[in-house]
């Protein structure tokens, strides 16, 4: 196997908004620090994503010393603190229900204008009650903020290159919203990886990521473009998961509080079959 390195590190502070490319990222108990810690919801607490609200893709995110700044065309920037007051409210992500901090009426007005319908903004609690699916993550509880299901998403640049050779137009890796992008692997070698060691941080790959329509949405415009799903179905359909897969969901087994650096070497442990 060739030398494997971390090619990119990305976080998405507001779920389904634009991501941030980082030179280094701190590893927290819920994943990369501040990844998917903010969430747009309907009045009934149901989460919003680009699947139904592609305008979220036009919201740019930036982290400052005190919090998150959101920007979108035609609106003044919105600053959201890392902590501070917020009314507790229940939110729903897929089948999970958990508590979050509602960020108030001014934030609600801003996100309502951005997505074009009444909505509110919430922030994850410091100690979230939500957990990854133990069927894949194992018996040790794995806390989650607001990702779809697991703390970290790992993608392989060579797999994207192989997919792009089958598509009418090449897609950038950001369409697949990874946290960690690896370089130096063979295409789809991630299917066989058990663990990735990056310095003191150990990631265990636990479940292939089944894909929806989000990779077809241009993250700059919010408009639909080339959809990789029909092509993925021809060679990446997983009958057990009932979906087409690209990338691997991971949990953190060691290295909480450490930093991952872009360009860092990785030690990869493979297994013969993915359980």
Descriptive overview:
The chain has 275 residues and is mainly β. It folds into 2 domains: 4-32 and 132-270, PK beta-barrel domain-like (M1 Pyruvate Kinase, Domain 3), CATH 2.40.33.20; 38-124, no CATH class. The chain contains 4 helices and 19 strands. The chain has helices at 105-115, 134-137, 157-164, 229-235, and strands spanning 4-11, 20-22, 24-28, 31-32, 38-41, 60-63, 67-71, 78-81, 87-93, 96-102, 120-124, 152-156, 180-183, 193-198, 201-210, 237-238, 243-254, 259-261, 265-270. The strands form 4 sheets. It has a 7-stranded mixed beta barrel. Strands 5-11-10-9 form a 4-stranded antiparallel sheet. The longest helix has 11 residues, at 105-115.
Describe the secondary-structure layout:
Elements: E1 4-11, E2 20-22, E3 24-28, E4 31-32, E5 38-41, E6 60-63, E7 67-71, E8 78-81, E9 87-93, E10 96-102, H1 105-115, E11 120-124, H2 134-137, E12 152-156, H3 157-164, E13 180-183, E14 193-198, E15 201-210, H4 229-235, E16 237-238, E17 243-254, E18 259-261, E19 265-270
Parallel strand pairs: 12-13
Antiparallel strand pairs: 1-2, 1-13, 1-19, 3-4, 3-18, 5-11, 6-7, 7-8, 9-10, 10-11, 12-17, 14-15, 14-19, 15-17, 16-17
Number of domains: 2
The profile of the biggest β sheet is: 7 strands, mixed, barrel
Summarize model confidence as the mean pLDDT.
95
SS-based structural class?
Answer: mainly beta
* C-alpha Rg (nearest Å): 18 Å
Q: Cα distance, first to last residue?
A: 22 Å
The strands making up the biggest β-sheet line up spatially as: 1-13-12-17-15-14-19
- β-sheet strand percentage: 35-45%
Instruction: Please bin the fraction of helical residues.
Output: 10-25%
Shape-level CATH architecture of the largest domain: Beta Barrel
**Number of helices, where a helix is a run of at least 4 consecutive DSSP H or I residues:** 4
């Amino acid at each position: 196997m060739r030398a494997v390195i971390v090619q990119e590190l990305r976080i998405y502070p507001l779920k389904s908004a634009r991501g941030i490319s980082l030179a280094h990222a701190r590893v927290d108990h819920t994943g990369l620090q501040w990844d998917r810690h903010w969430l747009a919801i309907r009045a009934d607490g149901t989460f919003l994503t680009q699947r139904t609200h592609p305008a979220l893709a036009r919201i740019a995110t930036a982290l400052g010393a005190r919090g998150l700044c959101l920007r979108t065309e035609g609106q003044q920037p919105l600053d959201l603190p890392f902590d501070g007051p917020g009314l507790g409210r229940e939110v729903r992500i897929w089948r999970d229900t958990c508590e979050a901090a509602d960020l108030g009426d001014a934030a609600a007005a801003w996100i309502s204008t951005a997505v074009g319908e009444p909505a509110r903004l919430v922030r994850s609690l410091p100690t979230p009650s939500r957990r990854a699916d133990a069927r894949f993550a194992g018996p040790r509880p794995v806390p989650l903020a607001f990702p779809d299901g697991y703390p970290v998403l790992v993608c392989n640049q060579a797999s994207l290159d192989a997919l792009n050779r089958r598509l009418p137009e090449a897609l950038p890796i950001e369409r697949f919203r990874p946290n960690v992008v690896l370089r130096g692997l063979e295409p789809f070698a991630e299917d066989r990886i058990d663990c990735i060691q990056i310095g003191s941080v150990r990631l265990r790959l636990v479940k292939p990521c089944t894909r929806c329509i989000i990779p077809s949405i241009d993250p700059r415009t919010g408009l639909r473009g080339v959809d990789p799903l029909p092509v993925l179905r021809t060679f990446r359909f997983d009958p057990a998961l009932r979906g087409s897969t690209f990338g691997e969901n991971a949990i953190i087994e060691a290295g909480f509080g450490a930093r991952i650096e872009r360009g860092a070497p990785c030690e990869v442990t493979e297994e013969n079959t993915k359980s």
